[in-house]
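Hi R.,

Quick one: here's the LysR substrate-binding domain-containing protein sequence you asked about.
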Amino acid sequence: MAVSQAQLKAFHAVAVHGNFTRAAEALFLSQPAVSDQVRKLEERFGILLFHRNKRAVQLTDLGERLLAITQRLFAAEGEAEELLSTSRALETGSLTLAVDSPVHLLGHIARFCERFPGIRVSLVTGNSDECLRRLQEYKADFALLGRVVEDDSLITQVLSSDPLVAFVAHSHPWATRESIVLADLEDMPMVLRERGSMTRQILEEEMRRAGIAIRPAIEVEGREATFEMVAAGLGVGLVSAAEVGASANVHVLPIRDCLQRMTETLVCLREQGSRRIIETFFAIVRSNGG
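And here's the predicted structure, written out as tokens:
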């Protein structure tokens, strides 16, 4: 019993976008047409792929398993389309990078865009765990992770290795200091990244090593939010030294006894490493000291 490609596309779009309306917009179809395709797929095999309510849909266990297959299927379809349509010159196509902080890739992206202006480059942000998940779900071509990576399923390239630094508002009592040690952070109100952030993981590991307790003041998602909260005087933040930039809103403090460093690693799936666009971007990174 052959499976309809149109029905699989409709299912995949609904599963990825979370509802029928957004799926229809992505497929340039009407919402009833997408609903009909999914209904026919379910009726044909006597199955249920979604739990439906008025606002959203939720995948059933079977739906989750089918999504894992359609992710691979349409990633392969995308590879075939790229092979047939972009040609050796990389005149058209797209490149998606999932990054925790774009600062480590901006120069490489600029060089790539200069050489291949027809390629549409997209950046999506998240912590290291989220970026890796996007890569594994075929929602990104590359992921930039804030750690050393040892995984045979990935091709890796280390971009940088930098120490962690603390930063505080200019109104903070530490604003006149030149540096701190980990013990200074004990019971100090902290502005922490969400769990899954390598900055937070390294801090927690270093504090455990030193036998020091962390006192969270506020938990935020994203580096920019951390800077905003710290600049407003809500606590002490931490970041890789490479990512602090020239911010005039905070005072930066090296941590003298912090042993671990933030290692930024660019990765792609090994199974996709032969795609020309991926080979080319990697070559640009490596030729410029990445």
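DSSP finds nine helices and eleven strands in the chain.

Cheers,
M.
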